Amino acid sequence: MTSSTRSGQTTVTRKVVLLGILVVVAAAVYSGGWMLAATMMQKRVAELLSGGNAAGAEVRCKDMDIRGYPFRIGLFCSAITVDDRFNGISASLGAFRSAAQVYAPSHFVWEMDSPAELRSALGFSFSLQWDNLRSSVSAWFDGLSRSSLVAEGLKVDTTAVADGRTVSVQSEHGEFHVRRNGEDLDAAALVKNAVVALPSATQLTLPPISASVDVTMLGKATLLDPVRNAAATELYGSRGEIRRLVIDLGEGRVLTVSGPLSVGDDGNLSGKLHLELEKVDGWKDALTTALPDSSENFVNAAKVLTALFGGRDSGSAELSLHEGVVSVGIIPIGVLPPL
Q1: pLDDT > 90? residue 303
Q2: By CB neighbour count within 10 A (0-12 exposed, 13-18 middle, 19+ buried), where does 280 fall?
Q3: Residue 18 domain-assigned?
Q4: What is the distance between the alpha carbons of residues 190 and 152, in angstroms, rounded to a whole number?
Q5: How far apart, in Å, are the Cα atoms of 52 and each of 85, 99, 107, 108, 300?
Q6: Any domain includes 287
Q7: Is 191 domain-assigned?
Q8: How many whole angstroms separate alpha carbon 158 and alpha carbon 323?
Q9: Alpha-carbon distance 306 to 283, whole Å?
Q10: Number of domains in the chain
């Protein structure tokens, strides 16, 4: 009886020991795999940041670290600087944090601390502040498949270096979404209650603006590739469609636009747009108040639209754009500057 009991205890002990060994080995293998993945990730990120990215920009991640063990993996930087000499852009950004589940490394989230400073060789500087900035990204070795960015309490100051004039934009909520659609690129954006302060003697502002846009850029899915030629980033010569653009100034003043659009090699726009406008006089009053120097243009445009709408304050129209010239039927009503 005693011998049988001891034999059973020995068998159980061996199983427990074997299980413990397997757990230790599995933990060691998993830890080694995590460390290997972290090392490879850090190496690949370093390559991208040192100029091996689509734009050829140099990006510096201060105090770069890979964290998240055991169930997550992510890149952390205490600050980020960008030097894109090809496009003439430099930037200083706040602390960056990202994380992905180890079982789904192609989907990760990231967030960044305020503030940020951007400088352009075109003669503009941008100062950005926000309460919360976060993003969700799905990507693999061939680049992004989709991404979403959400900002809360965003403020952007755009300053012209030549004369120091500043345009300020504040919004309580903003979103930007982009995804591949075959060879095309779908993009959408939303902004709520944006307040635009224009540089003027009286510091007049436009009413709070809410806007959304949903567009497709034909053949531009390559913009999401990690390595692409410079031609893929060119705006000139591109074509697309505005599926829906809505701008709402409140008090019933709503503008809706849709239709195909293209950008010529000289930057001029061409296309056919369906326009719906509510409260023509309300738009005229708001724009002439905010931009008094252009009041004559707004008054003339309001007269044309009112006549086009049969004397009504709201209606729709088909606009034609040909190399920047905007027409209703065969009647030119304005000229848009090239991009």
Answers
A1: no
A2: buried
A3: yes
A4: 12
A5: 14, 22, 21, 21, 52
A6: no
A7: no
A8: 28
A9: 12
A10: 1
Most confident of the ranges 57-61, 171-175, 283-287, 319-323? 171-175
CB 96 within 8 A of CB 76: yes
For the chain, what is the HEC assignment? Answer: CHHHHHHHHHHHHHHHHHHHHHHHHHHHHHHHHHHHHHHHHHHHHHHHHCCCCCCCCEEEEECCEEECCCCEEEEEECEEEEEECCCCEEEEECCEEEEEECCCCCEEEEEECCCEEEEECCCEEEEEECCEEEEEEEEECCEEEEEEEEEEEEEEEEEECCCCCEEEEEEEEEEEEEEEECCEEEEEEEEEEEEEECCCCCCCECCCEEEEEEEEECCCHHHHCCCCCHHHHCCCCCEEEEEEEEEECCCCCEEEEEEEEEECCCCCEEEEEEEEECCHHHHHHHHHHHCHHHHHHHHHHHHHHHHHCCCCCCEEEEEEEECCEEEECCEEEEECCCC
In a domain, 16, yes or no: yes
Beta pairing, strands 166-181 & 65-67: unpaired
Structural contact between residues 82 and 91, judged by C-beta atoms closer than 8 angstroms: yes
Indicate the residue type of 235.
L
Range of the structural domain that residue 71 is part of: 1-102+109-113
Give tens-digit pLDDT for 96-110: 998 888 777 778 889
Locus of tokens 């659609």: 181
| Contact assessment for residue 119 and residue 97, using Cβ atoms and an 8 Å cutoff | no
pLDDT in tens, 203-259: 556 788 999 999 999 988 887 775 554 445 567 788 999 999 999 998 899 999 999
